[in-house]
Amino acid sequence: MSIVEVQELRKQYDPPKGVLAVDGVSFDIAQGEIFSLLGPNGAGKSTTISMLSCLLHPSGGDAFVDGHSVVTDSQAVKEAIGVVPQDIALYPDMSARENLVFWGKMYGLAGAELQARVDEVLELITLVDRQKDRVEKFSGGMKRRVNIGVALLHKPRVLYLDEPTVGIDPQSRRAILDGILALRDQGMTILYTTHYMAEAQELSDRIGIVDHGKMIAVGTNDELVKIVGEEAHVELKVDHYLEGMVERWAGVHGVSKAMIDEDFAVLLVQDANEVLPRLFEAAAAAGSRITEVNVTEPNLEMVFLHLTGRALRE
Amino acid sequence: MSRIRAIAWKDLASTMRNVPALAMMLLAPLALAALLGFAFGGGQSFSISATKVAVANADTGAAGAAENAGAVVVGVLKSPDLKDIVTLSDKPSAAAARKSVDDGKAAAAVVIPADFSSAIFGAGATAPKTAIEVYENPTQEIGGAITESIVGQALLGFNGARAAAVAASGLATANGEGDRAGKLAQQTAAKYIQGGGAAAAVSVTQRAPRLLGGESTKDVGVTGTILAGMMVFFMFFGANNVARTILDEDRAGTLPRLFTTPTPRHTILGGKYSSVFVTVTVQAVILLVAGRFIFGIDWGRLDAVAALTLVAAAVATGLALLVISLVRTPAQAGAIGAGVYLVLALLGGNFTGAAAAGGTYANVQKLTPNGWLLQGWDAVMRGGGLPDIVLNLLVPLLFAVAFFAVAVLRFRKRYA
């Protein structure tokens, strides 16, 4: 059963000529599922989350959270959701506990229930020992944990996490990802946005790939990878004449797509073992020398490349 | 209600941690009031400190006259009535008196010539013509003008008596009474002058009714007037400082996050309004108490003071929210807010006091909420009560409501 249903959601800033940030996005999320929106920066992920958080009014379409419309019943939606914004949104001159108490009150908690929930969340984000320290003294990872903790205070039915691991160390990232999986195991529904393919692959039950405000593919990791079939992802670096080489390699038998990504030529090939010698030959014939080769099995990065003609990190 | 309290308390606590902001809100008005009060003498009115005058009386007296007219002039300058206005120092010569002025030790020198008494008491056309010299320091124009005015008043008395004596003498001669009547007129004039003239016969009584249906029962101290102006002025800044947290929170992401919670937007704005209102009310109370104990200011009746304080806080809060609703960044809020508050303060009389205004300026003051408030403070400090300041409460309150209403509309549009 879907707890989140998004129907042709659309957002245009300053209509009629403004940017169309989200262009008819539809998807749904089942109860207890982790659903990731994967896409490059500017794809429309945060705008989608903002509309689902009732922070932005949709220009068109609607979305239902726990059966409530974000357009007509925003109060009920807000009671059902917890939002972890991309940037740290805390009061730095207040302690971790003071922050949690304040935000708990904003979620309608009070008295003994509020104090109990604050204690539970402090345990959950492992900051009991530092609860009286001001947030401004915390490391980036600790701030992220408090940032997430705020959204958990009222035990939301759906948790939105907007790129919660941006700019933090690997150890903190690992802790956050493990925490999210634990929340899912407790039955919480999670909408997660990221532009890190590995995070989406590891966390998600299902993934929606967005680009230029459109949902270009939705499915499980395996379902999405099948879109590119058995093609391998080959990255090649040459000593010079990269642009010319990409054009030549695009015509080599067994290469389905060739493009430039920064210093590399990125190719989708049917069988890397079979095609690689031909690529070397073509380079030699053009007077170029291949200096680096990376071969990757099919993944979401390749799906994105396949669907958009661009690398995900662009 | 508990959410409004939580937001207000959070902002209030944050303001209390902001030491520079507190200094601006509390110390600056007190320091300015003390400084301006000191500059204006710090007394019971906008008085100027006593003018230092050096006097060289070279008058040798007149033959047959019992009194020295120069000494009479010096006596006038030394009069107890003028002790708050003039401080006199006797100099042995005209040169010494002028040197006091040149050295900056005196604002003016009064040089009384040797033949002054002869000129005053001399008979008719035989009397010499002479002049008292007032030697002024050009950088202390007010002191010089005061000295000139006092000496001029004394001479007016002398000349009037002389004119009367000459007229009496002429009349007697015309009636054939000869020299005896003329001398009698001269002696009478001299006695008149020596006796201090007819100053007490006719006088002007100054009255300045400032309250409805009656006169002020108290004079208002200059420090109190200035502190009232500074308090209202810095309440604007204090309110702006707290209201600016709306923009700060918008940039920091906590305001959008608040909007994702089930707390309604009007509650969030209510919390913000409360935090600003409470902050500036506390600021005003601290300044009122400090003014009472540091400067000994008698603010007036408690109920009227409380009403003025609350209305001033409402105006400051509404205005600050309006300014914040019209700008986009905290930097704009600082710059534009300062400009708005400064113009209002200049128009409303925060730097001059409502009592000092007159004519067109008094009408201009009434275009501003602070102008009405300051007139209210003036009335209350003069002993007025709530009935005397009804308009001074209602008009600013209307301003406050209008400011807040426009701010709410702006915020609704911005955060829709």
Q: List the strand order in the largest sheet of chain B.
A: 2-1-3-4
Structural class of chain B: mainly alpha
Q: What is the straight-line distance between the termini of chain A? A: 36 Å
The name of the CATH superfamily of the largest domain in chain A reads: P-loop containing nucleotide triphosphate hydrolases
Number of helices of chain B: 16
The count of strands of chain B amounts to 4
Give me the strand/helix succession of chain B: HHEHEHEHEHHHHHHHHHHH
Give the topology, please.
The complex is a heterodimer of chains A (314) and B (416).
Chain A (H helix, E strand, L loop, with lengths): L1 E11 L7 E11 L3 E5 L6 H8 L7 E6 L2 E2 L4 H7 E4 L11 H11 L4 H14 L15 H13 L5 E5 L7 H16 L3 E6 L2 H7 L2 E6 L2 E6 L1 H5 L6 E7 L3 H9 L4 E7 L2 E6 L2 H14 L4 E7 L3 H9 L6
Helix pairs in contact in A: 3-4, 3-5, 5-6
Chain B lengths: L1 H16 L1 H21 L11 E7 L11 H9 L8 E5 L3 H9 L5 E5 L3 H6 L11 E4 L4 H34 L3 H17 L27 H22 L1 H8 L1 H6 L5 H30 L7 H25 L3 H19 L10 H7 L3 H13 L8 H25 L2
Parallel strand pairs in B: 1-2, 1-3
Antiparallel strand pairs in B: 3-4
Helix pairs in contact in B: 1-11, 2-8, 2-11, 6-7, 8-11, 8-12, 8-13, 8-15, 11-12, 12-15, 12-16, 13-15, 15-16
How would you describe this structure to a colleague?
The complex is a heterodimer of chains A (314) and B (416). Chain A has 314 residues and is α/β, with parallel strands linked by helices. Chain A folds into 2 domains: 2-224, 3-Layer(aba) Sandwich (Rossmann fold); 230-297, Alpha-Beta Plaits (2-Layer Sandwich). Chain A has helices at residues 45-52, 74-80, 96-106, 111-124, 140-152, 170-185, 197-203, 221-225, 242-250, 272-285, 300-308, and strands at 2-12, 20-30, 34-38, 60-65, 68-69, 81-84, 158-162, 189-194, 206-211, 214-219, 232-238, 255-261, 264-269, 290-296. In chain A, helix 5 (140-152) runs parallel beside helix 6 (170-185). The longest helix of chain A has 16 residues, at 170-185. Chain A is elongated and about 75 Å long. Chain B has 2 domains: 2-43 and 219-414, no CATH class; 51-194, abc type-2 transporter like fold (3-Layer(aba) Sandwich). Chain B has helices at 2-17, 19-39, 69-77, 94-102, 116-121, 141-174, 178-194, 222-243, 245-252, 254-259, 265-294, 302-326, 330-348, 359-365, 369-381, 390-414, and strands at 51-57, 86-90, 108-112, 133-136. Classes of the chains: A alpha/beta (314), B mainly alpha (416). The A-B interface holds A 53-55, 57, 75, 78-79, 81, 83, 85, 87-91, 93-94, 102-103, 105-108, 110, 150 and B 2-3, 6, 10, 13-14, 17, 252-254, 256-264, 416.
